[in-house]
Design brief:
Blueprint: H1 3-11, H2 23-30, H3 34-46, E1 50-53, E2 56-59, H4 61-67, H5 71-91, E3 94-101, E4 104-111, E5 125-127, H6 132-139, H7 143-151, H8 165-178, E6 181-184, E7 191-199, E8 205-214, H9 220-242
Antiparallel strand pairs: 1-2, 3-4, 3-8, 4-5, 6-7, 7-8
Helix pairs in contact: 2-3, 5-9, 6-8
Length: about 240
Amino acid sequence: MSVLARAVSIVRLFDTEHSVLGVSDVARGTGLAKPTVHRMLGELADLRILERVGTRYRLGLFLFELGALVPENHTVASIARPVMNDLRETTKGRIHLAVLDGTQVVYVEIVGDTKAAIASRVGGRLAAHATGVGKVILAHSPPAVIDAVIATGLPRYTPRTLHTPGALLRELAEIRTEGQGYDREESHLGISCVAAPVIDPAGQIVAGLSITGPTRMIDPHVMGLAVRTAARTIGRQVRSSMS
């Protein structure tokens, strides 16, 4: 790997469950030699990408500063936030706004109970094929994007995860027809969602919006109408802000 690729592989190891890592942790996670890891961790800390915590490291404030400049987070999320708050009040669900990055979705805004048993957070990632927001984005994406997701092998996260190309392609076709998609306990058992696409002025998909909660609380018909309406509202406001 190039030096840049090594640095990125190190930064990617940090998440909510591994917020502070040492040299040995990083060496195991990346496969790099400990002397290389020690040197690179020090350089990343000097650049404020990481921060020293004794002999270990955590993500630095420089990444937070950069994150605030990411266009999807700065524009779509800020436009969507009031609509998401209204959707939360109406449905009592947890509201997600996500964008596609490679074969995964990145959550750029979340409204609702952050203590719910759902492994999502702002800046967090999940596989696109196993999420409602991911599938509504894929349904409106070019074939090459869908092919790239299928090429990952469609890993299963629960027994309900769509894990064959045929099943995924059929569901994407249904989403294009219905205008909404679902996560039927595909990423977390006991948790479901209904999602809708947010479309930009050129008719391109820019985000997915979803209502998530315990399966017993998710009514696909009532909540489907609500999330579709909210997604269209955000889409119109995105058009207005870009005109």
